Amino acid sequence: MSRIPALNPEQVPAASKATLDTFTKNIGFTPNMMTAFAQSPIAFNAWATLLGSLSKALDVKTRDSIGLAVSEVNGCNYCLTVHSFTAQHMAQLPADEIILARKGHATDARRDAAVQFARKVIETRGQIKDADLKAIRDAGYTDANVMEIVALVAMYSLTNFFNNVFDPEKDFPAVAPAGSI
User: Fold this and answer.
1) What is the 3-state secondary structure (H, E, C) of 116-147?
2) Residue 67 is assigned to a structural domain of this protein
3) Residues 43 and 65 in one domain
4) How far apart are CA 121 and CA 146, in angstroms?
5) Is the pLDDT of residue 138 over 90?
6) Which of 37, 102, 113, 164 gives 72 a disulfide partner, CB atoms 3.0 to 4.6 angstroms apart?
7) Overall domain count for the chain
C-alpha cells in the first residue's frame, strides 16, 4: 500500500509540471512514482536532470541491465517492474537477459563486466577492490565510463530508496520475486 498520496494533474507543483509533462509525453502515461516524486520540485527536477544526462552514458542495454542489478540488490520491487518493462520494450533484452541482469550478469562479455562492477559498487557501498577496477578497465571501459557506471548506481539507488520509502502503487507489469528466478 502506498505511503504517499497520488497527485492528480492539478495538484502537481508548478515547478514540477513541465518535467512531469515531458515524462508523460515520452512514456505515454504518468507513472505513479513520478507523480509522487513531483511533490518535491527540487528533488524531482534534480533527479530528472541526472537521468537526462546519464541517458547519454553507455548504451541502453547496459544502462537497463545496471538498473536491474542495482534494483535487485536494493530490493526495490517498483523499480524492478519498471526496469524489466523498459529492458524488454526499449532495450529489446530477452527475458533470460533480464533475469541475468537481476543476478548481476549479462551474456555479452563487455556488458557483463559493467553489470558485475555496478553490482559490486552497490553491494560494497563503493568499497571495491583494485582487482574490480582492473577487471572493468580490462573489459574496455575508460575511467570516464567507470564514473558513469558509479553515477548510474547512485541514480538508480535514489529511485530505489524513494520507492522503498514511499511504496507507490505499481503501474507496470509485476515481476517474479528474486527467489523464484
Assistant:
1) HHHHHHHHCCCCCCHHHHHHHHHCCCCHHHHH
2) yes
3) no
4) 11
5) yes
6) 102
7) 2
pLDDT attached to residue 4: 85
pLDDT on residue 175: 86
Structural domain of residue 30, as residue ranges?
Answer: 13-54
Contact 70, 155 (CB under 8 A): no
What contacts 3, CB < 8 A, 6 or more positions away?
165, 166, 167
Burial of 85 (0-12, 13-18, 19+ CB in 10 A): middle
CATH number at residue 80: 1.20.1290.10
All three cell numbers of 73: 540488490
